[in-house]
Design goal:
23 strands, six-stranded antiparallel beta sheet, 4 domains, globular, Beta-Lactamase, alpha+beta
């Protein structure tokens, strides 16, 4: 399989930007229109325009050698009473751009007022107006648009109050647009996470070839917001690509009849080269081929090869009417998607051919197959978790920095808090993916009293098994049979989560009430916890699927992750979890954990005292967003921060400066975070190394010790987490 970083994206020069989607622009204009109407009333101007710089020059402009400084505008909103003049102004502004607004040589880096246009141009003004004001809109140091006010009936003398008010309006509109974009990006990412989860559910929960492929094209079309998606499978004997499934309903018959040779069209070229192709002007692209009996119309397409063990097995192609329909983000997402789809297709083929033999395997072999399937899902979840933790880290860090501004308006602060909550919800979704795939490795173990875990779980779930049931007139009797048992080594919070799931499952199984018994005991080598109910029980089929991810009998009320998470946690504790159940006779969940013979020798982790030291810190990350966020946060805390974008650059800086702390990303091109930690430790043994990573659930304790890493900071990180790690670092240095 080829990685995203190895894919050369072949595309037209004009494809990189793409215009804003109409729905996005419509929502944004609806948000800004009331604000700009108030601005127009404040200025008492005849017309007010919201302008956005075109992201790229047209081909005609390029051929005419238009200077970059001669910016062209796209009018997002036009306010004014006289429709004829307003239309005339709009057409002239969009056609001529900056040169029709300002005299030659004028700069628009700051608010510009022209009380007398005719005098400034020294000839008849380019616009049928007498005065204008232009307020630039900034994103960082870059201008992306402006607010233009025009007076046509008479000249206007500008007061300082009007100029200051216009600048305040410009700042507010700039911030509103940026916040809207941030929230829209977050919504898109969350939607994509959910779509990938739905797709993963289908791929890894069925071996029906047709069902898998139908879901594939459905979600591929949905994620890219395209008109149709087609999967081609390579016939190795004839070296042709045969269409297997398509949901491009308008031209489905034509597509399904048309086979492609290797190298023919964008689809054939993607299969031949093993490289993804994006063409946002497919109707004009010499690499594409016209399917017979389909119209030659404006079209965009993406083709991504399906790879297995380094060989092409097919191609997934997405089509959309119109130009500039796809972005690099769409292609990158489809590439990730195609990589895992390839695994699913080959796995489906494999399991289909071995179906008869599979039925003859014993229970131990079934467990092995289940573990292997979950391992494959875990690899996918690890990659997705890292990518989205990076995205969520950038969003969460920037939002929390903005929230530190005490001068924010309540409405803006409320919006930022909503974004923060959505980012944290997204992070929790990623954590759940990592949990049920069982890829997590322990960092610290402590002594755990299972009887206390039982008491804690009963107290946490009391609102469900007592309060909620009593309100419904249902009585659930709790029986505790807790023997004195030795402690085990583990993570108390995780074991509590397991028992919470067991208890809530038992409560759900007794809708008419009943008896719930929880007991603990031990033998020579093992400690046991049993959770028994007198509820509905399970069929053999339900019992067999109970620990499968996403399997649930609760309909929309259940996620299908509770028992999968429990299974993963107990497995990581080197224990076992089993189910004894019969329909209408109740269920017993039995958890078996190894006793820790040296439990008394395990040292409790001491809570370090808060020590406030200011450090010289080297931050190393190939993601500029994460770099900037860490620099802002650490500088705000009074630390001196130096940035590096790679391990090699970091080593050069480290040798020439006296740093006390290195904060490095784990996954970087070239030298990894592990390797960098070893190298800086060789140069300065006292250096403290903090590793930041989106793969927090897959890091092994031995690897941390071997590399000389002092602390792990998981993405997405919270401001308080960063402060806490630095306090622990200070405590470690001072001790």
């Amino acid at each position: 399989m080829i990685g995203t970083e190895k894919i050369e994206i072949i595309k037209n020069k004009l494809e990189s930007q793409g215009s804003l989607k109409d729905s996005y622009k419509s929502k944004l204009i609806s948000l800004l229109e009331p604000i700009l109407k108030e601005g127009k009333n404040f200025l008492n101007c005849d017309f007010l325009f919201l302008l956005h710089f075109k992201s790229e020059l047209s081909q005609e402009d390029k051929e005419n050698s238009i200077l970059v400084e001669d910016k062209k505008f796209e009018i997002w909103l036009a306010l004014g009473e006289d429709e004829t003049i307003k239309q005339s102004l709009a057409e002239k502004i969009e056609a001529e751009g900056q040169k029709c607004l300002f005299p030659a040589g004028w700069q628009i880096q700051e608010t510009t007022i022209i009380p007398d246009l005719a005098a400034e141009f020294k000839t008849k003004a380019n616009l049928p107006c007498k005065s204008l004001i232009f307020v630039p809109l900034f994103k960082g140091q870059e201008i992306f648009g402006g607010i233009l006010g025009n007076w046509c009936s008479q000249k206007h003398n500008f007061s300082n109050w009007e100029i200051r008010g216009s600048e305040i309006l410009g700042s507010y509109v700039s911030m509103s647009i940026q916040n809207f974009q941030l929230q829209s990006q977050l919504e898109i990412q969350v939607d994509r996470v959910h779509a990938l989860l739905e797709l993963a559910t289908t791929i890894y929960s069925t071996l029906d070839y047709k069902v898998v492929l139908e879901k594939v094209i459905h979600y591929a079309k949905k994620l890219a917001e395209a008109d149709g998606c087609t999967i081609y499978i390579l016939d190795r004997e004839t070296q042709t690509l045969k269409p297997w499934l398509s949901n491009y309903n308008e031209y489905k018959d034509q597509i399904m009849k048309f086979e492609l040779k290797m190298g023919e069209g964008a689809t054939g070229k993607a299969a031949q080269s093993g490289l993804a192709i994006i063409s946002n002007f497919a109707d004009q692209d010499h690499r594409t081929v016209q399917i017979p009996d389909t119209p030659n119309e404006a079209e965009s397409l993406m083709s991504v090869p399906l790879m297995w063990s380094g060989e092409v097995i097919g191609v997934i192609t997405i089509n959309a009417k119109g130009h500039r329909r796809f972005s690099d983000d769409d292609l990158n997402l489809l590439t990730i998607f195609a990589r895992h789809v390839s695994d699913a297709i080959e796995n489906a083929r494999l399991f289909e051919s071995l179906e008869k033999a599979y039925k003859e395997l014993n229970e131990a072999q079934k467990q092995l197959v289940q573990s292997e399937r979950l391992r494959a899902l875990g690899e996918m979840a690890g990659g997705v978790a890292h990518d989205f933790n990076n995205i969520l880290g950038a969003i969460l860090g920037r939002v929390q920095l903005l929230l530190l501004n005490e001068k924010l308006e309540d409405k803006l602060k409320h919006g930022l808090k909503l974004i923060e909550k959505s980012a944290l919800d997204g992070a929790e979704t990623v954590r759940r993916i990592q949990e049920f795939t069982r890829v997590h490795k322990f960092t610290y173990l402590s002594k755990v009293d299972l009887n206390q875990i039982v008491e804690d779980a009963l107290e946490i779930t009391q609102p469900r098994w007592k309060d909620a049931t009593q309100q419904k007139g249902v009585d659930i009797k709790i029986v505790k049979q807790l023997q004195e048992i030795k402690q085990v080594a583990g993570v108390a919070s995780e074991l509590t989560e397991v028992l919470n799931n067991m208890i809530l499952n038992s409560v759900d199984a007794m809708p008419e009430g009943g008896t719930f018994t929880i007991r603990t005991y031990q033998d020579q080598d093992w400690a046991y916890v049993e959770v028994q109910d007198s509820g509905l029980g399970m069929s053999e089929e339900v019992k067999r699927l109970a620990f499968e991810p996403f399997f649930t009998t609760k309909g929309k009320q259940g996620t299908g992750l509770g028992l999968s998470v429990a299974y993963g946690i107990i497995s990581r504790h080197k224990g076992e979890i089993t189910i004894d159940s019969q329909e209408k006779k109740g269920t017993v969940f039995r958890i078996k954990l190894p006793l820790h013979e040296r439990a008394d020798e395990i040292k409790e982790v001491e809570v370090p005292k808060v020590v406030d030291l200011k450090f010289r810190i080297l931050v190393v990350d190939d993601d500029e967003n994460i770099q900037e966020i860490l620099q802002d946060i650490l500088s705000l805390e009074g630390h001196q921060v130096t940035l590096a974008s790679s391990g090699d650059q970091a080593l050069k800086l480290f040798k020439s400066s006296n740093f006390e702390v290195v904060i490095t990303d784990l996954g970087m091109p070239g030298m990894s975070g592990w390797e960098l930690a070893k190298e800086v430790r060789k140069l300065k043994d006292q250096i403290k190394v903090i590793l930041i990573t989106g793969w927090r659930a897959q890091i092994e304790t031995d690897k941390i010790k071997e590399s000389g890493v002092d602390f792990i900071l998981p993405k997405p990180f919270h401001l308080e987490q960063i402060k806490e790690v630095l306090h622990q670092t200070a405590a470690k240095i001072s001790s």
